[in-house]
Amino acid sequence: MKKNKIIALLALSVLVAGAAHAKAKEKLFRLGASNGENARFGGAIGVAIETGILDEELKKVGYKAEYIGFANGVASNEAILGADVDVVSIGDLPGLTGFSNGIGSIWLADNDKFSDVGILVRDDANITKIEDFYGKPIAVNFGTAPHFQFEQWIKDYGVDRSQLDIQNLTAVNGILALKTKDVVAVSAVWQRLLPVEEAGKYHEFWTTLERPDLSGQTMIVGRKNFLDKNEKAVVAFFKALYRAREEIIKNPVKWYDIVSSGYLNNQPELGEKLYNRENGKFYNFDNKISESEIVKAQKEYDFFLSIERFRTKKDVHNFVNNSYAQKAYKELKDAGVAITD
């Protein structure tokens, strides 16, 4: 009897030691987002987390996810530079800023290919054509991606910039100024503006929904030193994103608020306007970086170079590495997993 107890204890100690060893071997995959320290992750990443798909795919290759929220893109870039995060969902301007400054970041894919920007006006401002803006205050946050889109609107639609009264306000303060009638219009990310429009007293004057070639994009950026040494983890991450996209396609209403990071206040009809661009394909969450997206990013880079936000002329093609997403796609297809093209 005593001998059996000893054997049982030895077996138990082996199991405990084995579990501890397995846990010790588990590596960290530190995933960040730059939409606020306590904000939920958006885009396909948000769905991959919410469904448990990301944890599942990472576990298969011996990794465990750690989720980190950053106050903004600047903090995200600092974390990449300091090796405090491995992969991060980041706005296109801070993503390009990291590339310009040579912090060792790589553009792997987009978490949202069409980060739309628009101009929201007060109904009582009587603005029906471009000339009606002249001499009236408009809120725009200088040095941001929506600033770039606003300048593109001026350029492409024949607006006389010298006639505009542009107020440098953050999106939050711009919306507040719109409500207090201190400005007649605000230009900002449409995710933020669409719920304000739906609340009444305001209407859309223009958005990049009608000009996707001018829209922004939320980038997925990786730290090169991590990517080079942890290919399995990065491929597993993208497998999770492809699977998450299938969940969005199957039941978009369920996920609209997650992919918007909560901006839409659980109003699925707003998600339909923003994300369902082409009959249920949801190209917003396709991981492939196309040439048109690189062209968009290059235009933005060159704009900020022209206003001396960036110092060095660079080719955005050198920022791109789509191989991890492509490998994930191929492995899923080879395994018979249904992926919408």
In short:
The protein has 341 residues and is α/β, with parallel strands linked by helices. The chain contains 14 helices and ten strands.
> How many strands appear in the DSSP assignment?
10
SS-based class: alpha/beta
Cα distance spanning the termini: 64 Å
Strand content: 15-25%
Task: List the helices and strands in order.
Answer: HEHHEHEHEEEHEHEHEEHHHHHH
Can you give a write-up of this model?
Helices cover 47% and strands 18% of the residues. The protein is an alpha/beta fold. The strands form 2 sheets. Strands 2-1-3-10-4 form a 5-stranded mixed β-sheet, with helices on both faces. A 5-stranded mixed β-sheet has the order 7-6-8-5-9, sandwiched between helices. The radius of gyration is 23 Å and the shape is globular. The N and C termini lie far apart (64 Å). The relative contact order is 0.16.
Keywords:
single chain, globular, 47% helix, five-stranded mixed sheet, 14 helices, alpha/beta, 341 residues
Write the layout of secondary structure elements.
Blueprint: H1 2-25, E1 27-33, H2 43-51, H3 53-60, E2 63-69, H4 73-81, E3 87-91, H5 92-101, E4 105-115, E5 117-122, E6 137-140, H6 145-156, E7 165-168, H7 171-179, E8 185-189, H8 190-198, E9 202-207, E10 216-223, H9 224-229, H10 231-250, H11 252-259, H12 268-275, H13 291-306, H14 323-334
Parallel strand pairs: 1-2, 1-3, 6-7, 6-8
Antiparallel strand pairs: 3-10, 4-10, 5-8, 5-9
